[in-house]
Design a protein that fits this description.
The protein has 320 residues and is of the alpha/beta class. It folds into 2 domains: 203 residues, Vaccinia Virus protein VP39 (Rossmann fold, 3-Layer(aba) Sandwich), CATH 3.40.50.150; 82 residues, Putative methyltransferase TM0872, insert domain (DNA polymerase, domain 1), CATH 1.10.150.170. The chain contains 14 helices and 9 strands. It has a 7-stranded mixed β-sheet with strand order 3-2-1-4-5-9-8, sandwiched between helices. The protein has a two-stranded antiparallel sheet with strand order 6-7. Strand 2, helix 4 and strand 3 form a beta-alpha-beta unit. Helix 8 crosses helix 9 and helix 8 crosses helix 11. The longest helix is centred in the middle third of the chain and has 14 residues.
Length: 320
């Protein structure tokens, strides 16, 4: 069981969600090779390295995490390597290297949310940025240039916000009077545009989430990563994915399902072994997603929406 004091003291910047569950399913072994595709502040990476005498490669597109990567490089020497990259490009960046286990912790980190200068959250006023890699089109650029229809469609698609059209109309009307460049102003515009609705979350939450997902191409990156997953795992290797959004979880769930082994029915009198349906190379380990414990949610409320799914590459998979 998690101990609240130890948990908080070990990870002051970012609480790794379902850390014990991740380690249990990944099951690192001495000499094994593992890949942390979303390094962040290094919580998962440190735990994996501490759990065994394994080798770990970590990937992250955010240049702000390099100081944490340097700390692990000093602490674990030749067992740790950091590569700055979007996880979608990991297979290419690592030149097809294969791993015994891969971990993917999706979404924005607490470290990014809590930094007012990054513009991910409206809890603190700051520039409307939201770029994980700090490159490309920012949230303020998108708000300034996109059409009303495009804004509405994105808020509805990625935020599942039913009042997306009212919100988009208000944004376009307000930007005509003055550019929208801060998180607090966008949040206030969203709130004022919506019909009164009592809810547990702030009315601006879904809009911010949608814009962040869109400008960072989060769903597209996930799909690109999964498309290359077979090439990144050794036979028997495991993939552990932690998601925080229903759209992300749905993509992972369907990918696991579409590529999971389905044994071809054969007569019980047949001398031949059971055949595996062609084109299938995964075995689903978690039939249902794993959710954080009540104890963890009390310690880290942001973990409440997390879902953990695990699959394993079968022996004799496509790239074995």
């Amino acid at each position: 069981m998690l101990k609240e004091k130890a948990y908080k003291e070990s990870y002051t910047l970012h609480y790794p969600v379902m850390l014990e569950e991740m380690l249990s399913y990944l099951a690192p072994i001495d000499g094994g090779k593992y890949l942390d595709c979303t390094f962040g502040a290094g919580g998962y990476s440190r735990a994996i390295l501490d759990s065994s005498a394994c080798l770990l490669t970590a990937v992250d597109q955010d240049p702000g995490v390099e100081k944490f990567a340097e700390e692990l490089t000093q602490a674990y020497k030749d067992r740790f390597r950091f590569v700055q990259s979007n996880f979608a490009d990991a297979n290419c960046k690592l030149k097809g290297e294969k791993f015994d286990g891969v971990v993917l912790d999706l979404g924005v980190s607490s470290m990014q949310i809590d930094s007012s200068g990054r513009g991910f959250s409206f809890m603190q006023d700051g520039p409307l940025d939201m770029r994980m890699g700090q490159e490309g089109v920012s949230a303020s650029d998108f708000i300034a240039s996109a059409s009303e229809e495009e804004i509405a469609n994105i808020i509805y698609r990625y935020g599942e916000e039913v009042q997306s059209r009212q919100i988009a109309a208000a944004i376009v009307a307000e930007r005509a009077m003055q550019p929208i460049t801060t998180t607090s102003r966008l949040a206030e515009i969203v709130r004022q545009s919506m019909h009164y609705r009592k809810a547990k979350i702030d009315p601006a939450t879904k809009t911010f989430q949608a814009i962040r997902i869109y400008i960072n191409k989060e769903l597209e990156s996930l799909e690109m990563f999964l498309a290359n997953l077979d090439n990144m795992l050794v036979p028997g290797g495991r993939i552990v994915v932690v998601s925080f959004h229903s759209l992300e979880d749905s993509i992972v769930k369907e990918f696991f399902k579409d590529h999971s082994v389905k044994k071809v029915a054969r007569s019980k009198y047949s001398r031949q072994q059971e055949l595996i349906e062609p084109g299938k190379w995964l075995k689903i380990i978690t039939k249902k997603p794993i959710a954080p414990s009540e104890e963890e949610i009390k310690i880290n409320y942001r973990s409440r929406s997390a879902k953990l799914r695990v699959a394993q590459k079968i022996q004799g998979g496509l790239s074995a």
